[in-house]
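Note to self: keep these together.
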Amino acid sequence: MTKKRFKIVISVVAIITSFVIVYTIYFTKPSDFPTNEQLIIEMNNLFPEGKVSKIQDKLYLNEKNVFVPFISENDTYGTSYWVWKKRQWSMVSIDTEGGPIMWQANKKDPHSYYIVWNIDSDEQVAYIDFYLTKKRSYSVKEGVHHYYRPSILLKQNVSILEEPYGAMPIPFEWSTFMEGEKEIESAKSSNTLLGQFYYFNRYMLIGYILYDENHKETALQKSVNGHRFSTGNIDFEYIFRLNENEIKEYN
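Structure:
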């Protein structure tokens, strides 16, 4: 074999080997999710403050993202977030709060977003009204109206009487609206980085109102001021507690 042909063979082998390695790491189907016992051990090893004692459920957002609510030895309700990466299941975040938060499985795709929660059963909460809101906006320059955009108020109701935890996919209407907002903000910005900053500008937010069984507004007492551990490899968008007076501003 000539020296030139030998180099070609080595190059081909290197390319094939690299392809196999990349495919194996990033594109192989996930293995079976860990058992409850394995989850508890891993969670307490990485986050001893959690004192996890019971796994409530395993909720799949997709085949590579799993939401795992739990109860601690102190009867607090918490949440953990698991991702399949580099050929193994890894816990990327855990907290002992349980209040609603939005998990962006793929930050670039609003259709992959979920609102997740695990609210202590001692809390007087029967259901949650989630809202996507956007304040009206307009632009006037030298006495000329350049644009006017009306306020937006989208609502989704969720009962938690049967289970205190849940993972709600962002409604299609919401995610479609978010995509449109991203395109508008990108078009308005001449700076590429600012254009990618994200849809939740100063006018738009996602929030929630909690209600008891008598349809009265209520607030969390126990499911607040917890602790969180995160590897940094996860994208959250915090959502805000609203009240009925704030919602009236959008009507």
